[in-house]
Structures are given as C-alpha cells and as structure tokens.
Amino acid sequence: MRSSFVSRSGFVLSKTPNYRQQAARRRLAVVGAVVGLALVSGLIGSLTSHSSGDAPRGAHTGPFSYFPSE
Q1: Is the dihedral of CA 15, 19, 22, 24 positive or negative?
Q2: Which one of 3, 34, 37, 44 counts the least CB within 10 Å of its CB?
Q3: Mean pLDDT, consecutive 10-residue segments, the chain of 70 residues?
Q4: Which phi and psi angles does 34 have, rounded to 5°?
Q5: How many angstroms from the chain centroid is the CA of residue 18?
Q6: To the nearest 10°, the Cα dihedral for 58, 61, 62, 65?
Q7: Which long-range contacts link 38-44 to residues 24+ away (Cβ below 8 Å)?
Q8: How far apart are the first and last CA of the chain?
Q9: DSSP line for 11-46
C-alpha cells in the first residue's frame, strides 16, 4: 500500500546536496574569495602606485634604506 505522504503530482523537490557536493561548493567559494581578494588588492595597488617618476633618480631603497647614509 502506498503512503499518503508520497507526492503524486506537482513539483518534485530537489535532493539535498550530498557531502561531496557541499565540500566542492565550499572549496569553490574559498577559491573564488581568494581570487577576488587578489584582484581587488592588485587593483588598489595599481591605483595607488606612483609610476610618474616623482622620486629622484638617486634615491634607492634597500634593506637598510631606513637609516640615512652619509
């Protein structure tokens, strides 16, 4: 005998994603977030960089450039 709770007509409900599908979705979300953050960081860095040559040619930056050299 068929159960009275079985759907006979109308919309069929979708199945809940299994563990592998949920893990893949999470992995895709994390990869997308990392790529998005990298793109936004690169865009902000390119907009704030000084590429117009405002710095004098004699100025060199290095590991000890914090300390002035005589």
Answers
A1: negative
A2: 3
A3: 64 80 96 98 87 58 65
A4: -65, -45
A5: 25
A6: 90
A7: none
A8: 97
A9: PPPPPPP-HHHHHHHHHHHHHHHHHHHHHHHHHHHH
Residue found under tokens 């299994």: 18
Q: Which two tokens stand for residue 29?
A: 């979300």
Q: Residues 6 or more apart from 25 whose CB is under 8 A from it?
A: 17
Q: Residue holding tokens 């290095």? A: 62
* CA proximity to 16, closest of 25, 8, 7: 25
CA distances to 21, 24, 47 from 29, in Å:
12, 9, 27
Write down the pTM of the prediction.
Answer: 0.52
